Task: inverse folding
């Protein structure tokens, strides 16, 4: 009998959904641009069974993958669990067997040594397959249209590392999927590997390097010449795991590093630049101009994740958890290991940055953020797992610093947006932005479609779901042409 804990992680806004199903031809308010033909995949954590520990974290849920299929002005919906090894073993046992978030010491004896991944963090179409990703395990491959699970991949035995990141980038010049993994030689190890996967799905490069210390390397930056890794002290140790503490803690005594790896060289040419401690997670974009490397990421003064508490027991500081889009600049030709420049790009408290992905690894003129405007009224019972009330979407034009914002209203929070070009040859930033809107009072979700550079005008159309989706982590668009090889 299903019986979930009556704790904040499993009630209210974060109540498990566990719904698998299909809805043909969603109800639409407005008009879907007819040229939008393709799929928007997104994923959220969703525990198949009640957790072993009542205090288990939202991030430990099984991956629930949803797709919105756009076809000639219509949108169809499908949702399925990513059938990881963990999911299959627990489905057979009809109960949870894997213990606390990223703590193998708490697993049932019957599953010791098995892959613990949940494929719950990001989904992306490449080489005709849907990659479902969780950064503590290999990538899980699925069918992008049926959402059938194929299984984990090591790229025909070529990938020697054990993990695959949650935020790979597609190089718009080569078409390669560029990725990395941390803890690549086992739990808590400092070993990392950088990879490039060809447009046909073959691993063509794997370069190993060591991070200055073990930490959650959730995202990275890609330029035409470099792979760029920010090391922020969300760290861990075996002592923490043995004590039953949350896997990660934020250690304010450690510095931040920015590692710059030549994409097609060896790790011996890698540089590490150092800065005082801050919090940074997601990356809007990175690019280089010769030896100058630019890295754009939302930065907070202190920890943004209350569920990964301070290493030394300091209380969570909400006002210091506010993040602001910031540009870090380093110079590979500099004899020093310090940052050249740190520049705040906006005074808006925002996260989940996105660009026109056709300009990944290159200088960008347009970007979008989820923004938390605390001056707006809010009537809902709660926000994301972090407690954030992400109630606005903002478009930033970096050529003139113009910012335009749309507020979702007092009952609604916004999930991560995604940009779709108006057409294959459209100028940068000319297209649409899509985002799931969650009304926390009516308990319904809509997929909203905006003109990407006219966000303040509000949605052009809303595809209406007859339930409220659980908060997603990430998702991506795949044009119909990318699905032809599936």
Result:
């Amino acid at each position: 009998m299903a019986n979930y804990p009556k704790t904040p992680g499993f009630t209210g806004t974060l109540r498990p959904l566990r719904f698998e199903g299909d809805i043909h031809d969603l109800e639409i308010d407005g008009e879907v641009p007819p040229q939008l033909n393709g799929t928007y995949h997104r994923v959220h954590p969703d525990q198949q069974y009640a957790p072993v520990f009542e205090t288990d974290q939202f991030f430990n849920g099984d991956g629930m993958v949803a797709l919105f299929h756009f076809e000639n002005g219509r949108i169809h919906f499908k949702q399925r669990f990513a059938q990881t090894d963990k999911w299959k073993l627990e489905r057979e046992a009809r109960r949870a067997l894997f213990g606390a978030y990223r703590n193998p010491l708490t697993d049932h004896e019957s599953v010791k040594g098995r892959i613990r991944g949940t494929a719950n963090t990001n989904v992306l179409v490449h080489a005709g397959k849907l990659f479902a990703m969780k950064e503590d395990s290999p990538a899980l491959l699925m069918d992008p249209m049926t959402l059938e699970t194929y299984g984990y991949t090591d790229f025909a035995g070529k990938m020697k590392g054990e993990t695959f990141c949650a935020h790979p980038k597609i190089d718009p010049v080569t078409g390669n999927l560029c990725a990395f993994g941390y803890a690549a030689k086992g739990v808590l190890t400092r070993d990392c590997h950088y990879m490039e996967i060809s447009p046909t799905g073959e691993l063509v490069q794997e370069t190993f390097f060591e991070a200055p210390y073990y930490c959650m390397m959730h995202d990275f930056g890609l330029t035409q010449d470099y792979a760029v890794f920010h090391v922020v002290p969300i760290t861990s140790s075996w002592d923490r795991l043995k004590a039953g503490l949350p896997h990660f803690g934020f250690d304010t005594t450690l510095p931040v590093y920015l590692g710059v790896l030549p994409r097609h060289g060896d790790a011996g040419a890698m540089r590490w630049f150092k800065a005082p401690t801050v919090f940074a997670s997601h990356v809007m974009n990175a690019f280089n101009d010769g030896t100058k490397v630019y890295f754009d990421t939302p930065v907070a003064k202190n920890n943004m994740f209350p569920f990964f508490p301070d290493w030394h027991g300091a209380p969570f500081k909400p006002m210091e958890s506010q993040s602001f889009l910031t540009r870090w600049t380093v110079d590979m030709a500099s004899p020093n290991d310090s940052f050249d420049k740190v520049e705040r790009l906006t005074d808006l408290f925002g996260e989940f940055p996105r660009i026109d992905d056709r300009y990944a690894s290159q200088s960008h003129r347009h970007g979008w953020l989820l923004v938390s405007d605390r001056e707006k009224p809010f009537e809902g019972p709660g926000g994301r797992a972090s407690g954030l009330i992400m109630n606005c979407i903002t478009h930033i034009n970096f050529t003139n610093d113009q910012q335009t914002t749309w507020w979702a209203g007092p009952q609604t929070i916004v999930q991560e947006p995604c940009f779709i070009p108006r057409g294959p040859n459209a100028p940068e930033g000319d297209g649409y932005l899509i985002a799931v809107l969650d009304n926390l009072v009516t308990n319904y979700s809509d997929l909203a479609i905006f003109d990407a550079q006219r966000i303040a005008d509000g949605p052009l159309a809303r595809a209406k779901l007859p339930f409220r989706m659980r908060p997603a982590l990430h998702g991506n668009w795949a044009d119909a042409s990318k699905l032809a090889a599936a």
User: Anything to note?
Assistant: The mean pLDDT is 96. The radius of gyration is 21 Å. Residues 1-153 form one domain.
